[in-house]
Amino acid sequence: MRTDRSRIPFFYGDNSPHPGSAKPEFTNRCYLVFMKNILVIVFSFVWVCSFAQVKPLGPLPTKQQLQWHEKEFYLFVHFGPNTFTEKEWGDGKEDPSAFNPSGLDCAQWVRIARQAGAKGIILTAKHHDGFCLWPSKHSTHTVRESKWMNGKGDVVKALSEACKKAGLEMGIYISPWDRNHPDYGTPAYNDVYIATMKELLTQYGKYFELWWDGANGEGPNGKKQVYDFRRFQDSALKWQPQLVIFSDIGPHIRWCGNERGFIGNTNWNLLDTAGFQRGHGAPPTDTLNRGNVYGKNWIPAEADVSIRPGWFYHASEDSKVKSAEALFNLYLHSVGNGGNLLLNVPPDRSGRFHAADSAALVNFRKLREQAFAKDLLSGAAVHTTDRNKSNLKHITDHRNNTYWAAEAESNAGLSFTLPARQKINAVALEEMISLGQRVISFTIEAEANGVFRKVFEGTTIGRKKIAVFPETETKQLRVTFTGAKAAPVIRGISAYHFGM
Ligand code: FUL
Q: Which atom of ligand 1 is nearest to the CA of 214?
């Protein structure tokens, strides 16, 4: 807070002690602080004004969704009785003593996650079998009833402590479908589910994401639960307002419509959810995969996929772990199509990531680092055919909070003259999504022998589009925004040569 005293030196206008001042060093310091504050205010004002003309195009992401978009890639951990019973969907009748990891090591999960460059871990605290990886008071099918650590263990606690220690974020999967709980299929179960969430959301620290699986395999004669998702959502956000909640249709993050890790080449972060209810139907999977161009809600896509054929560990799949190259390909089709990648890595029966999975993850990180090590547009001269020629430098500055805004809605063109000829086979484009998703279509052309040739024709961009095309050697690239819902606002464009 500014005080009267801090203003005195300003009026004297120099650094010499004010006659009669008992504390000249103090006033000098105040003067410097004051001037620094003034400069910060003036620069911030000028900076804000230089971007002020852009009108946001709704729907817009929330602050939490924007933070989520920047995470790009994080791990999923499926762990529970299925790990020990060779099942994928336990029926809830398993003996809890089946769960007995011989050397649970959540610090190892966290270490590998960090080495892989993942931004967090989402744990299946409760899968469809109803088994709770923490000693829930609202169930008799938990770690407490298992032999593991004489019933004194708590996987949620162990992971949350390991994450906190390493500065990794944590998320939580709590299956609404519960094949064990006696109240399932009655209105009382909604209260049980909320009480269960309360334990998890109030006792272990903050999570970045809450995962509501849409799976429900109850047959025609099975129990049918009418979920009170409205109350689930209100309760979860009351305890942890920063959460982004995933389900097939959001409210904050949507399923991408498949479990292969592929988000649509056309991917709108927008979705119409009117007429659909969580747990009771969602739009067709191809709509989830692409979003709705004029959708009413900002609900971006997340690609959940397992590093192995199954979600849970099975020794027979040790030789079927996806290679680093396959993971990189998934990255291009998820993050590179404007969504996030949620990669499942199931711990084995010891409670550790298997060596094959760990090696693939670490090599996946290396491939990403190699691929994006050198932006070939750095040092390139940038020109535009658009009327707005200011702020062009922000297109190549790799900063998240700066952008260039076109004036024209369609056919705004950008050209890049590189310092030298380069082999290029990928271009990454980013929109400033805090101002809305705008670009409907674009082209990339490369010059060779004085002629520009189209190397890529794309649709949406969103947070990030990684356009991959056959290698071309060029000194000049041209990007043209051929269609947009409003004048494009571009956060960044960069070019690469992937050596694979
Ligand atoms: C599916 C579930 O049925 C699988 O077991 C797994 O949890 C996957 C992430 O979601 O719907």
A: 11
